[in-house]
Amino acid sequence: MTHITITQKRQSLEKTYTKSSHFTYLFGHIRQGLNHIAHSMVHFLTAGDEPRIWIEADAQGNVLYRGYDPRTGRRFAGGSEQAIRIWLEERYS
């Protein structure tokens, strides 16, 4: 019969935890890479000459409207929906 000391048990658990944390770290990087590839594929497949518009929030929680026009290469950043509408209307006028 083997006698496992508390120190041996702790070392065994630490090895298991270390292996687990390495796996979690590696899995996180793989998942991040796959997400980047998926995002790039969606962008490639849906990219046309239509403007792209999205909404972001800054560190204070303020809404920021952003836009990009691939036809002209112009970018937009503004703090109101009205401002982005004007930017879009300029594109079509």
Give a brief description:
The chain is of the alpha+beta class and 93 residues long. The protein is built from two helices and three strands; from the N terminus they run αβββα.
Description:
- It is built from two helices and three strands.
- With 93 residues, the chain is α+β, with helices and mostly antiparallel strands.
- A three-stranded antiparallel β-sheet has the order 1-2-3, with helices on one face.
- A hairpin with a 5-residue loop joins strand 1 and strand 2.
Q: Report the biggest beta sheet as strand number plus sense, adding barrel if it closes.
A: 3 strands, antiparallel
Strand content: 15-25%
Based on secondary structure, the structural category is alpha+beta
Which ranges are low-confidence, i.e. pLDDT below 50, for 5 or more consecutive residues?
Answer: none
Helical residue percent band: 55-70%
Order of helices and strands: HEEEH
Number of strands: 3
Mean pLDDT: 84
Cα-atom Rg, whole angstroms?
A: 25 Å
Descriptive tags:
single chain; 93 residues; alpha+beta; 2 domains; three-stranded antiparallel β-sheet; 2 helices; 3 strands; 19% strand; elongated
